[in-house]
Amino acid sequence: MSDAELVLRSTRVVTPEGSRPAAVAVADGRITAVLAYDADLPPGARLEDLGDDVLLPGLVDTHVHVNDPGRTHWEGFWTATRAAAAGGITTLVDMPLNSLPPTTTVDHLRTKQRVAADKAHVDVGFWGGALPDNVKDLRPLHDAGVFGFKAFLSPSGVEEFPHLDQERLAHSLAEIAGFGGLLVVHAEDPHHLDAAPRRGGPRYADFLASRPRGAEDSAIAALIDQARRLDARVHVLHLSSGDALPLIAAARAEGVRITVETCPHYLTLTAEEVPDGASEFKCCPPIRESANQDLLWQALADGTIDCVVTDHSPSTADLKTDDFATAWGGISGLQLSLAAVWTEARRRGHGLEDVVRWMSTRTAALVGLDHKGAIEAGRDADFAVLAPDDTFTVDPAALQHRNRVTAYAGRTLYGVVRSTWLRGERIAADGEFTAPKGRLLTRTP
Ligand SMILES: [Zn+2]
């Protein structure tokens, strides 16, 4: 057996080859070997016997709005990374907007890194932002280590982060493709949104009608055209419309470099069940009908959708008014994402291996974090220990999020995270946390 300081043993270890009884040896924060369950312990190694709890690679959530600095009363690095750790997430990548400043210049990136440095309970990376007027900043941000660039094709919800029209999208995308970068896109077509009925008020059906599937489908079609023309790499954020899936599958089949994510709320909540006035369920694009949700699950199963990320985007409770037109749009679910997805996945006959592929392996691959996202020798010893058959009922008061308004309140979910490990150290267990041990990550050149 190889040298190791620590061995974690479980009857169910989720590896890239499937789940099996195994002993995972760790030294210097990395996995050194995945051994037979009953392998002899190396001299001096400490054994952590997890029994029948499942050992998963720590989740990698590439879509989180931490909002720090500037809107730290909405969330913040301290609270977001504790919530992540409590939920089995060991790496998050922060979105460039809702913080002040937004991550749109190298100076702003440095500001955010300074703020995050001593608060990160898990590893933290950063997306940059592509705005109409910052094309000159994209290459320096890429060189400074952001994982890619986010753009909106329709208004973002905050005035300091304006969206790109098709001409500016082409300009930014050409620049990004020129240095081999990745553009991640909020894809709703503003012309479709303008043409949709906008009634406002507390009825969820009215809100849903104001953000039709066609707005997503049209924006994605245009994005595919630009990606094809420029041979650029693009990623569709938070896909909600199942009608866009055939477009995406066809584009990929002809070689367009496009990947797609969806979110726990689209996979587990439905329009039919959103109570009127309940704007904790408001996000853009919106949670749609259950028939649409079935299409998303089918696409996860057949690989058209690559991955699942939270799009955790909280605000203070006062902005979650009962008028869907003006309430803040964003779902708060960071700490609950694994349990929410697992609960619905198991009901639909999927295994934890699938959940790991969607929420860890493929998200790590999306941002090029080759040392994360799987339990195999050479990768970081980042783990979640999960009791998959245990249930809990979501009590907002028990969440680590700064603001505890959540669409999942009162739901009973499968999958209790017993502990979370970062580079071989247990950082969270039973609502207790160590001092922050997370590192700030940059893109691997
Ligand atoms: Zn988002």
UniProtKB/TrEMBL annotation:
Gene Ontology MF terms: allantoinase activity
Pfam families given in the database record: Amidohydro_1
Gene3D superfamilies: Metal-dependent hydrolases
Keyword entries, A-Z: Hydrolase, Metal-binding, Zinc
Record-linked InterPro entries: Allantoinase, Amidohydro-rel, DHOase/Allantoinase_Hydrolase, Metal-dep_hydrolase_composite, Metal_Hydrolase
Enzyme class of the recorded protein, top EC level: hydrolase
Highest taxon, organism lineage: Bacteria
Pathway(s) where this gene product acts: Nitrogen metabolism; (S)-allantoin degradation; allantoate from (S)-allantoin: step 1/1
EC number per UniProt: 3.5.2.5
Cofactor dependency: Zn(2+)
Domain named Amidohydrolase-related: residues: 54-425
Assigned protein family: Belongs to the metallo-dependent hydrolases superfamily. Allantoinase family.
Subunit structure of this chain's protein: Homotetramer.
PANTHER family referenced in this protein's UniProt entry, alphabetically: ALLANTOINASE
Protein name as catalogued: allantoinase
